[in-house]
């Protein structure tokens, strides 16, 4: 075994008492455990809104500092009033995940170790853990084993990172290198996107200079799935560089694009196929839901979040690219003071748009190690079953309509008798949402689907259990009765 080097401490240097120095870390642990232990005893929503919290925290910059433990406790005392309890089993407002304790604990270590996870030399442990976690992720998701995995903040940056690789690859095919020569004078890239793509895709395209509006929007069906015939019709006469952006898990309906058909159409034009799979790509981790993603493994790149179904803390996502060279050309950095590696090295910062970066691979490794394949399968099956159970209960009630086909964990609901006009149904749906938020037993969100305002239920917190499904349905139906009864 290699002998460890001696501690980097000069004999003439006296260090402070660490028991005092680190007391703030113990205080943070106490406050964190206390908050998690009480989260289900509080209303499922923030006690104070943004404006109120701004008033709570507003004060002049202090002339002199304060004791760190006092500052920590002050932060917790004031800050908890404006927290949205996203780890609460009844939180269904957005597709977020529940920050499971194992991932949170690993994230604490990540911060306490204070590592910059850019290179092997800067943090051998972080680099090694990312490499192993990458292999595990590709295995779990059934994606090419030699694909490159960049650990990013979430699906927005995941889409950005993968599409940066796509931008370079499709332009190099026709003789232009945008990573070195920029986009001034470059041949145009045509991007084909489904009409119901997530907003993060358009943000990523804007960041990359490809434009939020300068896309070819492809029609979608009633569940938000891209129409393969529509794509074929639009791309038929296209010449030049092209990217097709597909979706695994539409944010409202949970629907999946027809990947096999899209890949065949894209392949005929040498177009890059990217898949935004922020939460839906996790369906590949369960044999019962894998069929929803048929053909997705044939794409060129994928974006997926860890802070959704893997239950890691924020911020954690992955940009996965089949061609490692395309990703490294888009992301790599070079300076004389930076370490270099040979062609076989996986250099973390060559795969993401960050040089200084936290070791966010640690929570991913910890959650995969804690759950294993069967644990991930269990969470997915449990949440999808809960979503189906809630939908089954709600659709039995008069004046309640389940708007989507519940294929995964997403349920969208409209309220109002069928004969009512759309504005009135929208008003009633918003009234139910507001009633639920005021009552505080559960937290749900609202969204516009087509022209209809719907209530969205996203079942994805690790703390949510099957026994909660009927309670959720009861609370929603009680709110509907209160709203509909007040109209009589």
Q: What's the SSE blueprint?
A:
Elements: H1 18-21, H2 23-38, H3 50-57, H4 68-79, E1 91-92, H5 101-113, H6 124-141, E2 148-152, H7 155-172, H8 178-181, E3 189-194, H9 199-207, E4 216-218, H10 228-235, E5 241-247, H11 259-268, E6 272-276, E7 301-305, E8 317-321, H12 324-331, H13 361-394, E9 400-402, E10 410-415, H14 422-439, E11 443-449, E12 452-458, H15 468-486
Parallel strand pairs: 1-11, 3-4, 3-5, 5-6, 6-7
Antiparallel strand pairs: 2-8, 7-8, 9-10, 10-12, 11-12
Helix pairs in contact: 2-4, 5-13, 6-13, 7-9, 7-12, 10-11, 13-15, 14-15
How does this structure look, described?
With 488 residues, this protein is of the alpha/beta class. It has three domains: 61 residues; 258 residues, 3-Layer(aba) Sandwich (Aspartate Aminotransferase, domain 2); 108 residues, Aspartate Aminotransferase, domain 1, CATH 3.90.1150.10. It contains 15 helices and twelve strands. Strands 2-8-7-6-5-3-4 form a seven-stranded mixed sheet, with helices on both faces. Strand 9 and strand 10 form a beta hairpin. The protein is globular. The mean pLDDT is 91.
Top keywords for this entry?
488 residues; alpha/beta; Aspartate Aminotransferase, domain 2; Aspartate Aminotransferase, domain 1; 3 domains; 7-stranded mixed β-sheet; 5-stranded mixed β-sheet; 12 strands; 41% helix; globular
């Amino acid at each position: 075994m290699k002998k460890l080097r001696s501690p980097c401490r000069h004999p003439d240097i006296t260090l402070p008492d660490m028991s005092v120095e680190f007391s703030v870390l113990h205080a943070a642990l106490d406050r964190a455990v206390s908050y998690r232990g009480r989260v289900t005893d509080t209303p499922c929503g923030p006690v104070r809104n943004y404006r109120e919290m701004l008033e709570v925290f507003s004060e002049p910059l202090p002339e002199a500092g304060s004791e760190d433990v006092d500052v920590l406790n002050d932060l917790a005392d004031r800050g908890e009033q404006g927290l949205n309890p996203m780890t609460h089993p009844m939180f269904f407002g957005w597709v977020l995940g529940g920050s499971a304790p194992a991932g949170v604990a690993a994230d604490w270590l990540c911060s306490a170790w204070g590592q910059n996870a850019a290179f092997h030399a800067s943090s051998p442990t972080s680099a090694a853990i990312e490499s192993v976690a990458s292999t595990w992720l590709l295995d779990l998701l059934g994606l090419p084993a030699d694909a490159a995995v960049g650990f990013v903040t979430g699906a927005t940056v995941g889409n950005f990172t993968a599409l940066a690789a796509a931008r370079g690859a499709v332009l190099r095919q026709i003789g232009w290198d945008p990573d070195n020569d920029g986009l001034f004078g470059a041949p145009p890239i045509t991007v084909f996107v489904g009409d119901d793509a997530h907003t993060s895709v358009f943000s990523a395209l804007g960041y990359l200079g490809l434009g939020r509006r300068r896309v070819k929007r492809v029609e979608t069906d009633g569940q938000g799935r891209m129409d393969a015939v529509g794509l074929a019709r639009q791309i038929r006469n296209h010449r030049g560089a092209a990217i097709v952006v597909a979706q695994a898990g539409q944010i409202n309906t949970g629907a999946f694009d027809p990947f096999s058909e899209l890949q065949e159409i894209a392949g005929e034009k040498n177009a890059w196929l990217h898949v935004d799979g922020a939460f839906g790509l996790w369906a590949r981790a369960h044999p019962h839901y894998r069929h929803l993603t048929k053909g997705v493994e044939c794409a060129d790149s994928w974006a997926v979040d860890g802070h959704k179904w893997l239950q890691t803390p924020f911020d954690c996502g992955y940009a996965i690219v089949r061609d490692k060279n395309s990703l490294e050309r888009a992301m790599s950095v070079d300076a004389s003071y930076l370490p270099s590696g040979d062609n076989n090295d996986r250099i973390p910062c060559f795969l993401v748009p960050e040089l200084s970066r936290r070791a966010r691979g640690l929570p991913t490794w910890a959650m995969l190690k804690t759950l294993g394949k069967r644990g991930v399968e269990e969470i997915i099956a449990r949440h999808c079953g809960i979503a189906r159970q809630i939908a089954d209960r709600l659709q039995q009630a008069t004046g309640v309509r389940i708007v989507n086909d519940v294929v995964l964990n997403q349920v969208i609901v409209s309220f109002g008798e069928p004969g009512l006009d759309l504005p009135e149904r929208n008003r009633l749906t918003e009234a139910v949402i507001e009633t639920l938020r005021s009552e505080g037993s559960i937290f749900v969100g609202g969204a516009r689907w087509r022209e209809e305002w719907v209530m969205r239920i996203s079942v994805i917190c690790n703390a949510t259990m099957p026994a909660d499904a009927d309670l959720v349905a009861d609370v929603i139906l009680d709110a509907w009765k209160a709203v509909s009864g007040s109209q009589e």
